[in-house]
Design a protein that fits this description.
The protein is an alpha/beta fold. The protein is built from 13 helices and seven strands. It has a five-stranded parallel beta sheet with strand order 2-1-3-4-5, with helices on both faces. Helix 4 (44-51) crosses helix 5 (55-64) and helix 10 packs parallel to helix 13. The chain starts with 6 loop residues before the first helix and ends in a 12-residue tail after the last helix. Keywords: DNA-binding, Transcription, Transcription regulation.
Length: 285
């Protein structure tokens, strides 16, 4: 049995298989689809109480759809909420409503710090060294690097552009100012490279840029959150980053660490190519 990859797929599967479920699992299915916000954040114990079933029933329900545990299924409900509620204020209200809790600032600081520490510790093991070197090869050979990240990923793209300037690598940030995404993408030269940063739900502007780069044969490096990302299949090299998530708010710590690594590694390569006594590149601390 294949595991649903997103909420619409899970919702469709539940609808198709509902008649075959036991009475208790049908009861669980109705509760899950009727209260998606609560399911996204509440504990198994609290959800079981609200659904009037046992915690083991919730776990059995998740297993029946191919998930290894309830938390794996719950992640799809969280992703749905993040996609449908891009406004932070709305998310905060949804979390408070679902959990009945209002965490204080110190508690949030510890949660964000712990979550980001964990993804940073995992990052080196998630990045294939050959992919990292391949990405650096493409960036080093490029006459100029064009960097693009829409919405949340814009922070990462803008930092990388800044860092590339500080190692004296020609770089341009595709920011769509004045609605000119298309014109900026068309300005990418034949000897240039494009680096795209995009996370679920994958901005359409980024998908269009990747498709054009593929069509024109422009070297494309993609930083994204899944090998199933629509940009991954278009890229020359894909670097997968998993970010921390706390109460539906996703971080950027791992992505910034990776882009800093790319910039400094590229700077070291360039420095090694300079003749003795030449001008070194430097990056502000």
């Amino acid at each position: 049995m294949t595991t649903p990859q997103d909420f619409p797929e899970l919702e469709s599967r539940i609808g198709r298989e509902y008649p075959k479920l036991s009475r208790r699992l049908q009861q669980t299915a109705r509760f899950m689809l009727d209260h998606p916000q609560e399911v996204a954040f509440a504990t198994v114990a609290k959800l079981a109480e609200q659904a009037n079933v046992t915690p083991s029933t919730l776990i059995r329900f998740a297993n029946s759809f191919g998930f290894t545990g309830f938390s794996e299924m719950q992640q799809l409900f969280r992703e749905r909420l993040m996609n449908e509620l891009p406004n932070y204020a709305e998310r905060i209200r949804a979390v408070r409503s679902a959990t009945g809790e209002t965490p204080d600032s110190t508690q949030l600081l510890w949660e964000f710090a712990d979550a980001n520490r964990e993804v940073l510790e995992e990052l080196p093991g998630r990045i294939n060294p050959k992919d990292l070197e391949h990405a650096l090869d493409l960036l080093e050979k490029a006459e100029a690097v064009h960097v693009m990240g829409a919405r949340r990923s814009f922070v990462v793209a803008s930092y990388l552009t800044y860092a590339l300037h500080h190692i004296e690598k020609r770089a341009f940030l595709i920011n769509g100012q004045g609605g000119m995404f298309r014109e900026q993408i068309r300005s990418i030269g034949a000897g240039d490279a494009l680096l795209l940063v995009s996370y679920s739900p994958y901005a359409q502007e980024s998908q269009d840029a990747a498709a054009e780069a593929k069509e024109r044969g422009i070297p494309l490096v993609v930083i994204t959150d899944s090998s199933l990302s629509p940009l991954a299949r278009l890229a020359d090299v894909t670097l997968i980053v998993h970010e921390a998530e706390v109460k539906s708010f996703r971080g950027l710590t791992a992505s910034l660490c990776l882009t800093q690594t790319l910039a400094i590694s590229l700077g070291i390569r360039q420095d090694q190519g300079l003749e003795a006594g030449g001008t070194s590149s430097s990056l502000d601390a």
